[in-house]
Design goal:
Low-confidence stretches: none
Mean pLDDT: 97
Number of helices: 9
Helix content: 40-55%
CATH architecture: Alpha-Beta Barrel
Distance between the termini: 11 Å
Structural class: alpha/beta
Oligomer: single chain
Bound molecules: zinc ion
Order of helices and strands: EHEHEHEHEHEHEHEHH
CATH class: Alpha Beta
CATH topology: TIM Barrel
Largest sheet: 8 strands, parallel
Shape: globular
Radius of gyration: 17 Å
Number of strands: 8
Strand order of the largest sheet: 1-2-3-4-5-6-7-8
Strand content: 15-25%
CATH superfamily: Metal-dependent hydrolases
């Protein structure tokens, strides 16, 4: 069984065929899907989806794009939502995005720290989003690591999702005890550099995700992604690490269960 650790099935992209998408994932051996939220409304939708489908778990949080909307009331309302359900397994996705800059940097940092503290209080892991202003820049990742170090004990219970940093950033994340996840973008023809970084990740720290509807695999680029395509990622990871698909499946599923406290 595979665990999809990051999909956005609450998005309108799935409004017409959500049940089919979930069934195709199950048929492809994706037994658990963590639906990750981008905003407050999405957090409620994720919890609702997790109530409707046994295989869906929820992560609740607000994307750094919408950090400007995060107030103490938002945090309180998320806290109420999270504690109302036993299927919320993480706070996310939260972090810093200096690429699109849809919220001012300082507001992103302030909101991120609020989420780190919420995760600590509720004893939940974090699903982290981090995007630099441009390749080679390190401001966002530097501030993200600093915020984690200042507010949490090591090992930090978190996954750096859609990892896009270099080997130095990878080392900092691994030193903090974090998990790393890659999306189907490692299958892209022009992703040679990312595949090099992937090779430096110990399989015991690796998680699988699609970030659907985004980042459909090579051969389907530009189309809507879906959790069933996790198989393409599994194949690419197995090839690049030189470890059998069965072994990558077994270990990454174990990793996801450990991080998110899923016991089935
Ligand atoms: Zn993200
Ligand atoms: Zn995402």
């Amino acid at each position: 069984m595979l665990i999809e650790t990051h999909a956005h099935l609450d998005f309108p992209d799935y409004k017409d065929d959500r049940d089919d998408v979930i069934r195709r994932a199950n048929d492809a051996g994706v037994g658990i899907i963590i639906n990750v939220s981008s905003n407050l409304k999405g957090s409620f939708s994720s919890v609702e989806l997790s109530r409707q489908h046994d295989c869906i778990y929820a992560a609740c949080g607000i994307h750094p794009h919408d950090a400007k909307d995060v107030t103490d009331e938002t945090i309180q309302s998320l806290k109420g939502l999270i504690t109302s359900s036993d299927k919320v397994v993480a706070i996310g996705e939260v972090g810093l995005d200096f690429y699109r800059n849809l919220s001012p940097h300082q507001l992103q940092i302030d909101a991120f720290v609020k989420f780190i503290r919420l995760a600590k209080e509720l004893k939940l892991p974090l699903i982290l989003h981090c995007r630099e202003e441009a390749p080679g820049k390190k401001e966002a990742s530097g501030l993200l690591i600093k915020s984690l170090r200042e507010n949490l004990d090591i090992p930090v219970r978190a996954v750096m999702h859609c990892f896009s940093g270099d080997e130095e950033m990878l080392k900092q994340c691994l030193d903090l005890g974090m998990y790393i996840s890659f999306t189907c973008n490692v299958t892209f023809k022009n992703a040679a550099k990312l595949r090099e970084v992937l090779k430096a990740v110990p399989v015991e720290r690796l998680l699988l995700e699609t970030d659907a509807p985004f980042l459909a695999p090579e051969g389907k680029r530009g189309q809507r992604n879906e959790p069933a395509y996790l198989r393409y990622l599994l194949e690419a990871i197995s090839e690049n690490l030189g470890i059998s698909k069965d072994e990558v499946e077994r270990i990454t599923t174990e990793n996801a269960k450990n991080l998110f406290g899923i016991r089935i």
